[in-house]
Each structure stands twice: as structure tokens, then as C-alpha cells.
């Protein structure tokens, strides 16, 4: 898999540490991760403390690291998504190929049955041919025997004509006896000829039956040869599909390995991202402590070209995950690229990519309002960010542009108001920010 190109991020790995995957994290791994985060923060703090650069330079450097890590996370998430698609495609192909193999196996079964039936017919036909050949041989033997008797009979008749007939004629007493003798001789001759003709006709019929049976055998053998060819082709296709199935299974395995690699890279980058973000928070806190106490009088709508609220604060079914959970802010529908302005003056705590679903986002700490409570605001799903962490911004100053990054289904600004400056105390923005055409 091609690795994402980005600046060298801060990477801290404990000896024997193995990247976590998408399964429940054991207690030992949680401990190692906590230690890693602490050590990462210490190392980053040391790198800031011992370098002669200014706080602004350190902040810019850390922000660059955050941006670099965000790009790396995006790249690895894309690789993870591509690997999942590849695995799904490989498994779908495997399923399709197995289904085709099943069809071919059924066809091979049908062909085998047909081949067996034709082979059985060939055997029966050959038995009939053998029987006909035996009948022809027997008939020929009868014809040959009859022919020998006929020849003997003709010889006797010839002798009768040559000598015996004279003696017989001399014994004839009247014309009736003479005619009777002549009729008898003719009847014998006709009968002998008829017998010979019948036997020859029977032999010819047997030979014709044999020819017909041999033609049937030839036709059956031709059918069997054709079925054998089809059977061979089907088995070759089955073998080819089985090879393709093996290739699809290997492709799915490769995709699974690619997912593991991408997931490990994402978790490593996110670990480093959190460590860098904690260091930025420390620098912001240090900068805030060196400034006069922040205060403000109230909020303004962050969209000057405000249109409408597309989703209210409160419990709802998340449109991306489908899970029923608290929607901790208000969604302001607006075209992509619409400018977003700071709702009140304050310090930018975060400006970059969120691994928690906000996409490109900004968090501004405003300090105390007249009610005595400190407030922060969060602006999520930006197309791009137009400020940086650690910067002091005034109310109405440009901080980014409306987009649909992170867990979003369309262009809008997700706006949260945190009472006490903590996300756990998110309140309904409607009670604090004036929205035109409310």
C-alpha cells in the first residue's frame, strides 16, 4: 500500500507496543496508551521549552503537525475505505464464482447421466447387432444346408429325367397318369425354388436389420463423443472457476491485511494528534493566563447570510450512524463556501481536523459573560478553516467556510455553545445566539 506523504509526525511507540485494531481495547493496552500520551506530551513540552523559538513559532509548528497528521489520517482512512471496498468486491466475486461452479456441477451431473444413458444404449445396440449376426450366420447355415439338399434333389431329378423318366413314362398306362406325373415334377421344382427364395429373403432382411443397427450404433457413438466433449469443456471451466475463486480469496486476504495496516496507521496518527493537541491546549492556557481576564457582552449569529435552522438541539436519530443520541448543537443550512464568523471575541483553542466526526472545526474560548459564566463555541463540518489555534479573534472575524466534512450529509454549519467552557455543559444555542427569522 502506498503510504501517505506528509511531514514527519511526532510518533511515540512503547517497546512491545502493537497498534490496536477494531476490537475492545484490553486494560494493558489502555495503560500503555495513557503512558504514551503522557510521554508524548512531555517530549513535546521539552521540545518547546528547550528551543529558543517564540510561543507563536511553537504554536505554528504544532499546528503544522496537526495539519500534517490530519492529512495523514485522511489518507489512511481513504486507504482503509478502499481496502474494505476491495475486500467486499473480492467476496462478492467469490460468491458469484461459487454460484457459477454450482451451476456447472449440476450441468456436469446432467451430462454424466446422459452419457451413461447413451453408453447403455450403445451396449444394447451392440448386443442386438451380435444377435443379428448370430441369426444371419444361422440362416446362412440353413441356406447352405438347404442348398446342398437342393443340389442333391436336382441331381436325382436329372437322373430321373436322363433315365428314370423313360422307365416311368413306359409305366404310364394312360394320358391322365402322364399329366399327373408332369404336374408333380413341376410342383417339386416350384416348391424348391420358393424355399430358396424365402431363405434368401430372410437373410437379406437380417442383413438389412444389421446395417440399420450399425447405423444406430454409429449415431449413438457420435452422440457420446459430443457429450464427452461437452463434459470435458464443463470440467475445464469448473477448474478455471475454482482457480478464480482461489485468486478472489487471496485478494480478500490481501485487502484484510491492507485494512489492518491502514487501521494501525490511523490509530498511530490519532494518538500523536491527541498528544499534539494537548500541548497546544497548554500553550493556549499559558497565553490566556498572561492576558487580562477575557470577558464579552453577548453573541452574534456566525452566518451573516443566515438562511434557516435544519436541525435543532436535542435528542434525535443521527443521520449518519442511525443511533439515537443528543444533538449538542444547532445545524444552520447554508451553501458550501459561505463565510463563518466568530460569534464573540476570544482565543482560538482548536483549528483543524476532528477525529470525532466534526471534520474541519474551530473551538473559541470567549471567557466570562455578564452572567458570570465562561463560554466556548464550536463550529463544525467546515469546508476549510481560516484561522489558527492560539490566535485571538474579534467578534465577526472570519474563521472558516461552510462545508460538509466529517460525519455530515450536506453543507451546513454545526454550532455548539459550551457553558463553563466545557463540552459536557453544551447548552441550546437558541438561548444565547440571536437568529434572524427565528
Automatic annotation (TrEMBL):
Residues 1-25 are annotated as: Disordered. Residues 59-142, 196-237 form a coiled coil. Signal peptide: none annotated. Pfam families: Peptidase_M23. InterPro entries: Cell_wall_metabolism_enzyme (IPR050570), Dup_hybrid_motif (IPR011055), M23ase_b-sheet_dom (IPR016047). SUPFAM superfamilies: Duplicated hybrid motif (SSF51261). It comes from the Bacteria. One of its GO terms (molecular function) is metalloendopeptidase activity. PANTHER family: MUREIN HYDROLASE ACTIVATOR ENVC (PTHR21666:SF270), PEPTIDASE-RELATED (PTHR21666). This is Peptidase M23. It comes from Faecalibacterium langellae. The keyword Iron does not apply. Transmembrane segments: none annotated. The keyword Coiled coil applies.
Amino acid at each position: 500500500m502506498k503510504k501517505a506523504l506528509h511531514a514527519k509526525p511526532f510518533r511515540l511507540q512503547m517497546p512491545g507496543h502493537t497498534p490496536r485494531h477494531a476490537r475492545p481495547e484490553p486494560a494493558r493496552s489502555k495503560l500503555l496508551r495513557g503512558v504514551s500520551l503522557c510521554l508524548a506530551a512531555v517530549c513535546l513540552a521539552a521540545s518547546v521549552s528547550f528551543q529558543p523559538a517564540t510561543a507563536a513559532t511553537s504554536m505554528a509548528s504544532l499546528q503544522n503537525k496537526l495539519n500534517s497528521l490530519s492529512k495523514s489520517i485522511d489518507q489512511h482512512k481513504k486507504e482503509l475505505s478502499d481496502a474494505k471496498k476491495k475486500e467486499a468486491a473480492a467476496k462478492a466475486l467469490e460468491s458469484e464464482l461459487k454460484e457459477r461452479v454450482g451451476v456447472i456441477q449440476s450441468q456436469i451431473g446432467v451430462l454424466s447421466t446422459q452419457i451413461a444413458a447413451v453408453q447403455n444404449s450403445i451396449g444394447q445396440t451392440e448386443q442386438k447387432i451380435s444377435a443379428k449376426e448370430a441369426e444371419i450366420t444361422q440362416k446362412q447355415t440353413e441356406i447352405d444346408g438347404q442348398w446342398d439338399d437342393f443340389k442333391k434333389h436336382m441331381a436325382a431329378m436329372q437322373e430321373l429325367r436322363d433315365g428314370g423318366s423313360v422307365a416311368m413314362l413306359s409305366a404310364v398306362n394312360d394320358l391322365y397318369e402322364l399329366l399327373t406325373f408332369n404336374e408333380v415334377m413341376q410342383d417339386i421344382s416350384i416348391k424348391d425354388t420358393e424355399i430358396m427364395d424365402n431363405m434368401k429373403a430372410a437373410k437379406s432382411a437380417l442383413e438389412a436389420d444389421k446395417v440399420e443397427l450399425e447405423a444406430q450404433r454409429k449415431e449413438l457413438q457420435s452422440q457420446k463423443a459430443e457429450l464427452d466433449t461437452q463434459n470435458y469443456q464443463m470440467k475445464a471451466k469448473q477448474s478455471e472457476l475454482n482457480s478464480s475463486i482461489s485468486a478472489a480469496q487471496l485478494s480478500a486476504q490481501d485487502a484484510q491485511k491492507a485494512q489492518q495496516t491502514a487501521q494501525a496507521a490511523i490509530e498511530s496518527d490519532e494518538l500523536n494528534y491527541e498528544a499534539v493537541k494537548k500541548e497546544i491546549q497548554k500553550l493556549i492556557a499559558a497565553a490566556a493566563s498572561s492576558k487580562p481576564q477575557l470577558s464579552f457582552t453577548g453573541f452574534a449569529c456566525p452566518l451573516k447570510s443566515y438562511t434557516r435552522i435544519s436541525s435543532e438541539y436535542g435528542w434525535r436519530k443521527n443521520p449518519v450512524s442511525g443511533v439515537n443520541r443528543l444533538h449538542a448543537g444547532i445545524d444552520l443550512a447554508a451553501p458550501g463556501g459561505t463565510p463563518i464568523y466568530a460569534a464573540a471575541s476570544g482565543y482560538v483553542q482548536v483549528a483543524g481536523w476532528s477525529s470525532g466526526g466534526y471534520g474541519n472545526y474551530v473551538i473559541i474560548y470567549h471567557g466570562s459573560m455578564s452572567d458570570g459564566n465562561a463560554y466556548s463555541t464550536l463550529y463544525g463540518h467546515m469546508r476549510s478553516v481560516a484561522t489558527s489555534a492560539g490566535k485571538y479573534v474579534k467578534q465577526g472575524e472570519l474563521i472558516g467556510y461552510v462545508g460538509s466534512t466529517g460525519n455530515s450529509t450536506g453543507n451546513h454549519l454545526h454550532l455548539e455553545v459550551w457553558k463553563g467552557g466545557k463540552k459536557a455543559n453544551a447548552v441550546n444555542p437558541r438561548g444565547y445566539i440571536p437568529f434572524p427569522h427565528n
